[in-house]
Each structure stands twice: as structure tokens, then as C-alpha cells.
């Protein structure tokens, strides 16, 4: 398989800090989000960026990736994990889902042999192995009534309990209302088959919320930054603001301040009872990046007319 250079995918240097990595991801996510982009391969690029951020945005995964990058990320050679890598435990435990084979080769399957060397199943009626899977979902999917299709590897064993290989299992899973990042969900009987008539193991899904290009999450509330031109903040405006289910028209009152939060009730994430949190629109005044002489003359007249000093408190 080919080596994936996650730094190159996000367009950052290997020395980039957490802030730069997050900013680069958000830029790509806005560009290629399937709900926004019209490019033919936007969904693939969005998933690739999400995978890169899943690794580089996590300190532990990034450290493991940096180590293995020295081993297999050069000279264009086909990638193979270093000998003994899996026996060390690999990484985050993702198997299947929307992540690549390269990702799974590094971070997938921490469980190792389900019975351990020299501990093969010898007695009849043994319960099948449980399967652990981390499932990345988008915020929009927490509100959807549609099922999400997942695929994962299930170990197969013979009558003696010895592993004979793996098979791919596909399920349609309904995301429960109010699910949160890190929550563990049990699907009974969806793990490995039992031995000698024993019960099937279970599938345990650990939910991981994929970072969103527009929204930050605080509990069941959502935060979105709303850029405003100076005159919109001064005079007031109607601004179309994205939500998880569409756009709303938000009223910006005259003399609004940068950093001010406006609450939109019931437009956040759902809780266990199906009630939704709130959306907070955080205002951010943005100056034009360039201005001509005529525009600067208008700014000069405004400054003279307004006679406003934002630093008056310093004099005290």
C-alpha cells in the first residue's frame, strides 16, 4: 500500500503546531465539504483531510505517526509497517469505517490474537470474541434518522478455537439521539461467532465526533463564528448563518461588538431525551484586506466624525 503523508495532505510542515494544523484542516474541510463543494472528488478529499486531522490533531497518534513516518515515508517505496509494530499495540483502534488501509495498518486492531499464543480455545461452548471499533461520525449524523452503514473485520475460528482468518461484516447502525464523543455503544451478538455452540461476541462502538469545519461543540451546544464587516456591526444587518439542518437569517443589531454571542435556541445537538441544545453565533468583525484611496478617505472622515477612542480605559 502507499504511504500517506498527512502533513502534505493538510499542507503544513512537520513542525506545525496544533493551531496551524487545526486551521489547515478547517480550510480544507470548508473547501471540500460534500454539502458545499461542487468538485467531483470533493468527498474523497474531505475524507482524506479528516483522516489526516484525526492523526495530526491527536498528540499520541501524531507521535506514533511521526515515528513510523521516518521508517516508511521516504523514497517512494511501498509502505510496510516496521516488524513488530502490531505486537507493540499499534494506535487508536480504528477498523473499517471511512479510514484508509494505511491508517488501519498503523492504528487499527490493538486487540491482537483474541485468545493469545498458547491459549487457543479447547473447550466447547465458548463465547465468541468481542470486537471493538471506533466510529467517526459527523455532527449532522447525530440528528439524522437514517442508519449509517459500517464495515469491520471479525475474526473467524475453527472448532478448536484457533483463528483461521477474518471476514468483513457490514451493518446498518442507527446513531442514538444524544450520542457524545467517546461514548461506548454495545451491539449484542454482532461480534465474532461463538465456538461449539457458544454465543456470539458483542460489537462495541466508541463514538468519535469528526471535527466540523464550521462548528465547535460545548456539551450539546454549538458555537459558530460569524464574520461581519465593520459597517454590518455598526449599522446592523441580516446574515444567513449555517446550522446543521439548513440556514437561518440572524438579525445583527446596530452597534454590535466583536466577540459578542447571540443565542439561537434549539439549534444545537440533541440530548438523550431528543431535546436540542442551542446554537451560539459568536460575532467577529473583519476588516477588508485592501482599500483604495477613496475608501481610506471615507475611513478618515469617519474617524474624525466619530471621535471614538477604544482605549480610554488605559488612561485610568
CATH architecture of the largest domain: Orthogonal Bundle
- Classified in CATH, the superfamily of the largest domain is DnaJ domain
What is the general shape? elongated
Could you give a short account of the major beta sheet? 4 strands, mixed
The class by helix and strand makeup works out as alpha+beta
Helix coverage percent of residues?
25-40%
Q: What is the radius of gyration computed over CA atoms, rounded to a whole number of angstroms?
A: 25 Å
Main location: cytoplasm
Protein name: Curved DNA-binding protein
InterPro entries: DNA-bd_curved-DNA (IPR023859), DnaJ_C (IPR002939), DnaJ_domain (IPR001623), DnaJ_domain_CS (IPR018253), HSP40/DnaJ_pept-bd (IPR008971), J_dom_sf (IPR036869)
Subcellular location: Cytoplasm, Nucleoid
Short description:
With 316 residues, this protein is an alpha+beta fold. The protein contains 8 helices and 11 strands. The strands form 4 sheets. Strands 6-7-11-10 form a 4-stranded mixed beta sheet. A 3-stranded mixed beta sheet has the order 1-5-4, with no helix packed on it.
Amino acid at each position: 500500500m502507499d504511504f500517506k503523508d498527512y502533513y502534505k495532505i493538510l499542507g503544513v510542515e512537520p513542525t506545525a503546531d496544533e493551531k496551524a494544523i487545526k486551521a489547515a484542516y478547517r480550510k480544507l474541510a470548508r473547501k471540500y465539504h460534500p454539502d458545499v463543494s461542487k468538485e467531483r472528488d470533493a468527498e474523497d478529499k474531505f475524507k482524506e483531510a479528516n483522516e489526516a486531522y484525526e492523526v495530526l490533531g491527536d498528540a499520541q497518534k501524531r507521535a506514533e505517526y511521526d515515528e513510523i513516518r521516518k521508517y516508511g515515508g521516504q523514497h517512494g517505496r511501498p509502505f510496510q509497517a516496521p516488524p513488530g509494530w502490531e505486537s507493540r499495540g499499534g494506535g487508536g483502534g480504528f477498523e473499517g469505517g471511512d479510514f484508509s488501509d494505511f491508517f488501519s495498518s498503523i492504528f487499527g486492531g490493538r486487540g491482537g490474537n483474541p485468545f493469545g499464543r498458547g491459549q487457543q480455545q479447547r473447550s466447547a461452548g465458548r463465547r465468541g470474541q468481542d470486537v471493538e471499533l471506533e466510529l467517526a461520525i459527523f455532527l449532522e449524523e447525530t440528528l439524522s434518522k437514517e442508519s449509517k452503514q459500517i464495515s469491520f473485520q471479525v475474526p473467524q475460528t475453527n472448532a478448536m478455537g484457533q483463528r483461521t482468518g477474518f471476514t468483513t461484516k457490514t451493518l446498518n447502525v442507527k446513531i442514538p439521539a444524544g450520542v457524545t464523543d467517546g461514548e461506548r455503544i454495545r451491539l449484542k451478538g454482532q461480534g465474532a461467532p461463538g465456538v461449539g455452540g457458544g454465543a456470539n461476541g458483542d460489537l462495541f462502538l466508541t463514538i468519535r465526533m469528526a471535527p466540523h469545519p464550521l462548528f465547535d461543540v460545548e456539551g450539546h451546544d454549538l458555537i459558530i463564528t460569524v464574520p461581519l464587516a465593520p459597517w454590518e456591526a455598526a449599522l446592523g444587518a441580516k446574515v444567513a448563518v449555517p446550522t446543521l439542518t439548513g440556514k437561518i437569517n440572524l438579525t445583527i443589531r446596530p452597534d454590535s461588538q466583536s466577540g459578542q454571542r447571540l443565542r439561537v435556541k434549539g439549534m444545537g445537538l440533541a440530548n438523550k431525551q431528543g431535546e436540542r441544545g442551542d446554537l451560539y453565533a459568536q460575532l467577529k468583525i473583519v476588516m477588508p484586506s485592501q482599500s483604495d484611496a477613496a475608501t481610506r478617505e471615507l475611513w478618515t472622515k469617519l474617524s474624525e466624525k466619530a471621535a471614538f477612542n477604544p482605549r480610554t480605559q488605559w488612561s485610568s
